[in-house]
Amino acid sequence: MAYELPALPYDYNALEPHIDEQTMRIHHDKHHAAYVTNLNAALEKHPELVENLRQNSRYFREQLLASGFKPLPGETPIIPVILGETARAIDMSRQLLEEGVFVTGFGYPVVPQGQARIRCQISAAHTRADLDQALEAIRKVGRRLAIV
Question: Rounded distance, CA 64 to CA 66, Å?
C-alpha cells in the first residue's frame, strides 16, 4: 500500500538573488507551517503508519540485540549500532551496500572516538520481510567482520 505525503513546497536554491534573508525566512516559515499541517493531516488519515513505524523499529532493535549487536537504546526509527572503530563502521556500511542494504557509517570526529557506528533508518513502509532481509545481511557481514 502506497502512502503519499506532501511534497516540500519550494526549492530554496532557486531563489532569485534579489530576495533578502528576511523575505526568505518569512517564506520558509509560511511554507514550513503548511507542510507540517499537511503532514499532520496525512498522519491523522493513516494512524497505522505511526504504529507500523513503532512496531518495525522495536522489532529491528530487538533482533539486533538478540543477534549480539549493540544498538543504542531508544524508540526512534533511527537506530545507531555501535561498532567501535571508524574503519570497522565504514567497512561494514560498504559491505552491507554490496549485500543490498544501505546504512550510513559514522566515525570520529562525527561521533566520539571509539563510538563509531552504522545508522539504520527504519520506515513504516518496510515489511517484516524487508526487515528480516536487512537483518540477515547485517548478521552475515557482522560474522564476516568478527563483530558478532
Answer: 5
**pLDDT tens digits along 9-52:** 444 444 444 555 665 566 567 777 777 788 778 778 888 889 99
- How far apart (Å, rounded) are the C-alpha atoms in residues 116 and 81? 8
> What is the residue type of 116?
A
Cell numbers representing residue 16 in the block: 532569485
Q: Which residue has the cell 499541517?
A: 37
Q: What is the pTM of this model?
A: 0.75
CB 61 within 8 A of CB 138: no
Q: Give the span between the Cα atoms of 120 and 124, in whole angstroms.
A: 13
The three cell numbers locating residue 55: 512496531
Looking up cell 502512502 gives 3
Cα 86 versus chain centre, distance: 19
Q: How far apart are CA 110 and CA 139, in angstroms?
A: 25
The secondary structure of 97-131 as a DSSP string is HHTT---EEE-TTTS-TT-EEEEEE--TT--HHHH
Beta bridge partners of 118: 81, 105
Q: Please state at what angle helix 128-144 crosses helix 86-98, rounded to 10 degrees.
A: 130
